[in-house]
Amino acid sequence: MTTDRGRSLQMRVVTERRSRAPYLPRRTVFLDYTTGRALNEEGRGGQLPAAADVGDLLDRIPEWVQRICVVGAPPQGWSAWGLQLPVDHPRWAASRKGHYLPSGDWPALRFAARDIDREVEIRGAGEWFTGVDSVDTARDAWELLKVAVGRVAPEAIPLSSPGVTGQQIAQWLLPKNKQFLVLSADLRNEIARTSMQGGDQLLLPPSGRKMLGGFSVHDGRVMYGGMLRELGSAAPTGPALLSEEYGTPMPWLDLDLQKGDTPSRFHPGRIKVSATVPADWSHLSIFKLPNPDREASARYLYPREPGETFTVWCDPVEAECAYRAGWDVRVRARILYPQRDGRPLDTFAKRMEEQSKLIEADRDGVGPELARLVSRALRLCVVRLVGTLASRSVRVTRTGALGDLPPGIMEWDTLPTGEVVWTEEVASPAGTWTHPEWASAIWARARIRALDGPCPGDRARRIGALHVPAEHVVGVHADAVYLDHDPEWPDDGAWGRLRRQGKVLGRRKWPTSSRELAELVREATGG
Question: What pTM was estimated for this model as a whole?
Answer without folding.
Answer: 0.85
